[in-house]
Automatic annotation (TrEMBL):
Coiled coil: none annotated. InterPro entries: ArsR-like_HTH, HTH_MarR-typ, WH-like_DNA-bd_sf, WH_DNA-bd_sf. One of its GO terms (molecular function) is DNA-binding transcription factor activity. The lineage of its organism: Bacteria, Bacillati, Actinomycetota, Actinomycetes, Micrococcales. This is MarR family transcriptional regulator. It holds the Pfam family MarR_2. Residues 9-58 form the HTH marR-type domain.
Length: 94
């Protein structure tokens, strides 16, 4: 059976950051199941596209999400990442 998921690694990284804005890249990589270098690349891509901002706090980074940004695929572009994050938030109730 082929291994696949419904969400991309980019979405998984956003979900990790939304749950813990102070999360380390090492921890993101472990949670998503990717290398630390891949996690760093994804965070940089998300930052470059305006989906998150990285703020340096001492020796750590804090990530701020721009939840008003639209999803990138044309089929989903009328939805915002805030909706995705809310739907998959661990603190939301069904």
């Amino acid at each position: 059976m082929a291994h696949w998921t419904f969400l991309t690694n980019h979405a998984h990284v956003l979900l990790c950051v939304s749950e813990n804005p102070n999360v380390r890249l090492r921890d993101i990589a472990d949670m998503v199941g990717i290398t630390e270098r891949a996690a760093q690349r994804i965070v940089t891509e998300l930052e470059d596209a305006g989906y998150l901002d990285r703020v340096r706090e001492g020796r750590r980074n804090r990530y701020l999400l721009n939840t008003a940004m639209p999803l990138r695929h044309p089929l989903d572009s009328d939805h915002r990442i805030g909706e995705l994050l809310a739907a998959f938030s661990k603190s939301s109730t069904p």
